[in-house]
């Protein structure tokens, strides 16, 4: 396989990274989608809210140092260039003076395929799927991270990916979802199954005047799967969430979820649906089979401190919900032990631009931002959070992220824990990172502040 490795720049990230131009035919729809990502600080003017100003000296240092859990925590000064070099030499890219000496992290792979902006990443069974501006979904094999396949369609711009039960679901810029079946007979193969909505169903619905019930009227932004209920959810900038029955790929419900574009959705193991929107809220929905045509009912609305919410993730046990916002904050809510209700827990500060993607694995939370960096946060046993690493190297906003426990899911021993992280950026580069943390009394030993690593 021919992979073009590149060296990441040592220069500071460019927050005003320019988005690629698109074809005239789909410019209107795609521009709507790109505006919803809020990758530029100037785009904040579109919202009726005023995010915190980033001009103060204390906040300008937040790229290098982050509070433990609250934005009110004092920020520690960034390490000098000499300290950064010493850290890289003595710890392989992590740890060092004033930070966590037990954490190391480094970029182990950097790939440029000239596919345009990388917009989506999904992982399953030792495979990583990446979607971009073009009509090809690339398949990568772990742990060597070599390309082992491609999924091609006539449509371009893969904006969301999900993998479940050996099925790959990909949402495209044309508002449709393509489905593949993954098989392992005589090697890895992907067989195209269907397009959602099905063409025949869409034509009949259009003739009968019900096309709005079966097709999103704007680009899709996110996908989520409820395995136990055989349900696929799709969110869109058209302010709705559609519910698709996986068995026959039919739309069985349209949730009028928010008054503004829906940017992210996620489903808990108990079937609870969370939706995040530009209206600066996260909504919680439950499914009641006795409600007929509209079984999903709103249970609670979680305000996100007046900032549009662009990304969501849940801890593996479903106990903590995280929401990444355009003001750079990551707000989180805790699930009560007895009531099961979500209560506001605090915010993680560090990013200087919009948080565009989130992932959670074990006790780690990984965030990607329009400031061109990713951050790795550790959730401690007492509920506090510590920033373990700032991953620097992309030249554009980090649009998608995926994380795995250990070294590509392998057991790395009782004395170490960590995760492997894949990040995709609008600069067209796919990076793989390795974060390792040495156990101390069965927990990750951390101190205040976080380390800063530049490739």
Automatic annotation (TrEMBL):
Gene3D superfamilies reported for this sequence: YVTN repeat-like/Quinoprotein amine dehydrogenase (2.130.10.10)
Segments annotated as WD repeats: 213-254, 255-285, 348-377
InterPro entries: JINGUBANG-like, WD40/YVTN_repeat-like_dom_sf, WD40_PAC1, WD40_repeat_dom_sf, WD40_rpt
Keyword Magnesium appears in the UniProt entry: no
Compositionally biased spans, kind Low complexity: 52-75
Keyword Repeat: yes
Annotated transmembrane regions: none
Domain of life, per lineage: Eukaryota
Assigned keywords, A-Z: Repeat, WD repeat
Chain intervals with Polar residues compositional bias: 7-42
SMART domains noted in UniProt: WD40
Ranges where the record places region Disordered: 1-100
Protein name, per record: Uncharacterized protein
The species this protein was found in: Ficus carica (Common fig)
